[in-house]
Design the sequence.
């Protein structure tokens, strides 16, 4: 079970299992339990993770997915740097012909884009 947010943080979700164990979930937490209960991996509460949220992907991401770390932050919001490098290409054609398909000399700006991943 995933709890993404609470309408009142003072009223967390309480879950009681068949064996009487009671678990309390706050916003951004998950209850992990295997049925039948597995003594090697007992029920426990942990932070919601992307794989746990993907279990319920058909419902879409919650509204606070970015705050919970379930959705990637936009590049600029995550502190990325924008790198702009002006480039000038100089073209010289020592083999002159009567027809020129394009510039044979001079300079002109060329746009270049970079995608930098963390």
Sequence:
């Amino acid at each position: 079970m995933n709890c993404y947010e609470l309408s009142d943080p003072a009223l967390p979700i309480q879950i009681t299992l068949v064996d009487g164990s009671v678990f309390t979930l706050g916003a951004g937490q998950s209850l992990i339990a295997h049925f039948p209960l597995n003594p090697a991996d007992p029920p426990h509460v942990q932070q919601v993770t992307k794989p746990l949220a993907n279990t319920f992907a058909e419902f879409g991401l919650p509204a606070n997915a970015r705050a919970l770390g379930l959705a990637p932050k936009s590049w600029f919001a995550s502190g990325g740097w924008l790198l702009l490098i002006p480039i000038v290409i100089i073209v010289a054609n020592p083999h002159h012909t009567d027809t020129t398909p394009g510039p044979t000399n001079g300079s002109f700006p060329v746009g270049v884009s970079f995608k930098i991943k963390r």
